[in-house]
Amino acid sequence: MRLDSRPSLLPALLGCLLIFAALPSHAATPAWTCALPAPALWQRVTPLGNLLVCTQQGLHGVDVQSGKVAWTRSELAGADEAACSEAPGTPYVMFSTGTAVTLVDPFSGAMVYDSRQAQFPRPDLVQPLFAAGCVVVCGTKPGGDRTSVLAVDMASGRTLWTRDGLDRVMAAVEAGDGGILLVTLFSVHRLNAQTGAESWKGQTMAGADQAAKLDKALGGLLGRVAEAQVAKSGFGLWFHPAPQRELFMLAVESKQEQTQVSADGRKTTTYSDRTVYNAYRMSDGALAWPQAYETPEKAGMVLVLDQGFVVASPFGDVNCLSFVNGGRLWGTRGRGISMRGTPQTLMVLPEGLVAVCGSENDAEVNVIDPQAGTERFERSVRLKGAFVTARKVPAGMLFVTTREITIVDMATGQPRFEKPVATGPGLYAIRGKTLFSFDAKKKAVVRVDLESAAARTVEVGRLEFDGGEEATAIEIRPKGVLLTSAQNLALVTPEGLAFHRYYPAPQDPGWVRALNIAAGIRAAYIGTIAGMGAAMYTTAAMTAKDKTVRAVGAIGGIAYRDLTMQAGAAAKEFFTQAARRYKATEQARECMFMVTETSRENQLVQVDKNTGEIRERISLRSAKKPVYVVDDVEGRIYHLATPQQVACYAF
Description:
By secondary structure, this protein is mainly beta. It contains nine helices and 51 strands. The radius of gyration is 28 Å and the shape is globular.
């Protein structure tokens, strides 16, 4: 660490110069070992904490409490690790091998779905319906050109029912009383989840029923042509349920073509966007509004509040549509609220709806009173960086982005700071009425009193990490503030720098890959916990292509405490496990894991956050490549001590 300090702090700092400490002799003792029937090819920890090990004899689920092999799927023997992934939004593990896709329940080992038996080479949609206890799978059969749907029992994997000859399926959601809504390109069906029996069928847009009759007379030709045209055009359909009002809303987006002929006979074709919003009753599929809400733009973000459907247009206009008649409720004469920039986030707090417009580089934020339909601040707050979160604190409304932090007076709408407090992604922490932030540019820790909005720098000089690393996380500890990166940790106290430790990483970055994956899963749980008290809708959930972002979405989609009571018997274990792991992340951890390189070997070490010293270590001496996986939520390391033995270390 390179540390520029003031002379008055020199004696304290001399006592905590960087020490490349010799590793202690205390080797970790495994909690259990598991003998495998064949050498392990790979192992993986799922977001819900299941340990999977693949050998040439099958895919094995290992009980993480006892170390016993709980189940084996022999048909997945020798499966490529690259073919294994988490099915987004579900607790299942997905294997994509050639033209086959299978879904496995990591708790019981049940084969929930096998595309070879269902005759779907690759499903377009896999949607678990937890209260109904089934999984809806949609796809196209070989040689077919229309969509087929099947429902699979979540516990046994048994096919409950199938439907063929449908338009492209856009969504499948639970509708209460054992029913589901199946939304296709041109129609909406309410079905019995267990039998597939249809209660009613509605249309997604005007004229769809007449088109369906003509399509049937033409042997499905019209539907195939329509789907082909939809694939080429800007057509889109979004489904937004409001179960508390027994309603759902469809947003249908399309492009309008207009051709003009000039005086000299030349044709000019222009295209314009159009979106139609309409609400329907879940009970019978009938229209709930006398007139649709139309906008000359692409579909916007939609959030369901107690007052109605909130729609944020791509151009920054925000309005609320009445559940009763679709009337516009916000702004002067229902004209809505105008903000600058593209809507990024809608977040519900007790103080109102936080509306965020902007980009990854800047954000414009305001708080809307949902009852009055007015903005609480006369002028929106402008911030640098992408919006992260907002919360009420004694000094006002706290806003955090990836670059800065500010507090706004709720009465006047004025910032409480002369200049926002600088921060970085993941570099702020709150405990009680105090916030700490790390200024990544100045390399300084800033303390903010959330009652008075007073901010001051903790005087320890510039905190530079070694190994070319930057701080990636901050944590409030009993004695001070801990800053960490992959291989560095430093504790800053009111008296100065207590310690800094750096443990060099192996030259091959593959050795730390398992730790990075585990840290990402833990961060996903913590992030979901942070949003438990506030509903948030963000464009990232709709557009994410990054695998890590999708993994976060998968966890957020299944791990809610209140769903434990709603889930069917087969799904209760999923939610019980998710809730337990949530609780584990709420507890402060006393250590962190690192892989470090010594002159003799690579070692996986447990580092004490209070001292920076190594507590325990696991030797990776005999391994030519990484042979461990980490559950960073519950503090477990699974190490292949030999090719046929897994050792679990519980910390």
